[in-house]
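To the wet lab folks,

You asked to see what we're planning to order before we commit. Fair enough. Below is the target structure as tokens, and below that is the sequence we designed to fit it. If anything looks off to you, flag it before the synthesis order goes out.
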């Protein structure tokens, strides 16, 4: 009988065994780390890097820089004890350069309807970056949708009667606010220097989605005597589409410091438009400012800030904005005819 050869392990087989065992230990360790981090709410392989965390901040900064020149502060002069006091009553957004026209909320201007009172609009010159205070008048309004259009003008400018043919031509132009981007159109400041306005860029109709990131901008004056108003920006999400709230016809809503949730849905009988609900915060006196997307295009006009009073006067912030679809339909008619109905 032949002698049995002693048992032996080749070096290659031993090395392979070691590699397999080390790999098994590493995989087990990795699985444990993944489970622990997932339980903590942060997937192991989805941890954002510092660079990625700055992306949204960079976008917000860029949106603010791009859109700010289109956002204006609206004020009215009133006499108190024989002294002229300048009250900031809200924000607005430059719609076009052909007027130029500014959009804002109806609820801040009803007391001025039917009068010759001239408002003051503080805006930034697109060419120089300097701020100018320009007179403006109410060109028309749609009280049902809390929408008003102002026309920037020189003190000596007066509205002229126009034929239906001219009105039709103007309506065609008014439907394309971007067609005259960056044109001074003869509007000058108090020193007679032409002012180049910056019309807001408008998003395509029907482009909004629930969950979309949006930015609410406003333009107020912390110090009424200051030449430059204070602009603000807040970030939020579209939380609902097709919402509705009561129309503020005949009521003036003053700027608030904190927005509180409006019970939804609220009925707005007879209203032809639909409101979008957004969680972006609107600050005091920011009514009438634009709601824009991450590309800086206007998707809506902040139009209503309500307060749901509870026993503790607490609530969560929900604001409303008229969708751009409605603005593109109604604003040109207001510019040309002074009303949303398309007739004088």
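Sequence we intend to order:
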């Amino acid at each position: 009988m032949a002698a049995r050869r002693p048992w032996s392990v080749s070096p290659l087989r031993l090395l392979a065994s070691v590699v397999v065992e080390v790999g098994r230990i590493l995989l087990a360790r990795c699985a444990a780390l993944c489970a622990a981090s997932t339980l903590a709410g942060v997937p192991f392989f989805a941890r954002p890097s510092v660079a990625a965390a700055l992306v949204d901040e960079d976008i917000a900064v860029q949106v603010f820089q791009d859109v700010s020149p289109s956002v204006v502060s609206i004020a009215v002069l009133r006499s108190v004890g024989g002294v002229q006091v300048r009250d900031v009553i809200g924000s607005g957004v430059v719609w076009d350069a052909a007027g130029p026209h500014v959009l804002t909320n109806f609820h801040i201007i009803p007391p001025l309807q039917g009068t010759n009172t001239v408002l003051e609009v503080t805006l930034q010159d697109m060419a120089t970056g300097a701020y100018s205070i320009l007179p403006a008048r109410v060109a028309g309004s749609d009280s049902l949708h809390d929408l008003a259009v102002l026309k920037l003008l020189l003190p000596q400018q007066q509205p002229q009667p126009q034929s239906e043919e001219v009105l039709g031509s103007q309506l065609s132009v008014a439907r394309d606010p971007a067609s005259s981007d960056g044109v001074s159109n003869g509007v000058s400041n108090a020193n007679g220097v032409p002012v180049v306005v910056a019309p807001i860029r408008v998003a395509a109709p029907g482009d909004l989605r629930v969950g979309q990131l949006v930015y609410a901008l406003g333009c107020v004056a912390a110090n009424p005597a200051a030449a430059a108003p204070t602009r603000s920006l807040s970030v939020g999400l579209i939380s609902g589409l097709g919402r509705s709230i009561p129309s503020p016809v005949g009521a003036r809503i003053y700027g608030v410091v904190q927005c509180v949730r409006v019970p939804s849905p609220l009925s707005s009988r007879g209203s032809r438009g639909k409101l979008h609900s957004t969680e972006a915060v609107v600050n005091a006196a920011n009514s009438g400012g634009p709601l824009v997307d991450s590309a800086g295009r206007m998707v809506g006009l902040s139009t209503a800030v309500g307060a749901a009073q509870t026993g503790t006067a607490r609530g969560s912030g929900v604001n409303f904005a008229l969708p751009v679809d409605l603005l593109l339909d109604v604003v040109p008619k207001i510019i040309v005819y002074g009303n949303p109905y398309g007739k004088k």
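Structural context that might help your review: Confidence is low (pLDDT under 50) at residues 36-55, 155-169, 250-272, 305-316. The first helix runs from residue 11 to 39.

Thanks,
Computational group
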